[in-house]
Specification:
By secondary structure, the chain is mostly beta strands. It has a domain at 5-64. Helix content is 0%, strand content 24%. The chain has strands at 5-9, 22-26, 32-35, 37-41, 52-55, 61-64. The protein has a two-stranded antiparallel sheet. A two-stranded antiparallel ribbon has the order 3-6. Strands 4-5 form a two-stranded antiparallel sheet.
Length: 113
């Protein structure tokens, strides 16, 4: 089952003056409202201090049309001829990983046979 509204930021955090973008997928029938809050204190520990949010809606507050943007968890790619490819000394890889089958044992994110 897919949640009707799913979103993420393109960066984990930003400094004052830096830009951040939000990606949202909405399977709802109509528009959705979104506003920006700054998490000043977000300790989820029940024994800790309560969460504290700062309203930043003067920077971002609006109503947006719903648009579903699907992700395909479990998808993969095979690259023919990769076995003989010469790789650079350093290689960067980005992956969105949603570990839904951890009980299945070790799994591969990137491999070269």
């Amino acid at each position: 089952m897919t949640a009707p509204l799913v979103g993420y930021a393109d960066r984990i955090s930003v400094r004052s003056g830096e830009k951040i973008a939000f990606k949202v997928s909405s399977a709802g029938p109509g528009p959705y409202n979104a506003m920006l809050v700054k998490i000043v204190r977000g300790d989820a520990n029940p024994g800790g201090p309560p969460p504290k949010l700062e309203d930043m809606s003067d920077l971002f507050d609006g109503r947006f049309a719903s648009r579903e943007q699907r992700a395909w968890p479990g998808s993969y790619a095979l690259v023919d001829g990769a076995r003989n490819a010469k790789l650079p000394a350093a290689l960067g890889v980005e992956a969105l990983i949603w570990p839904t089958l951890p009980a299945d044992g070790p799994q591969t994110v990137v491999s070269r046979i």
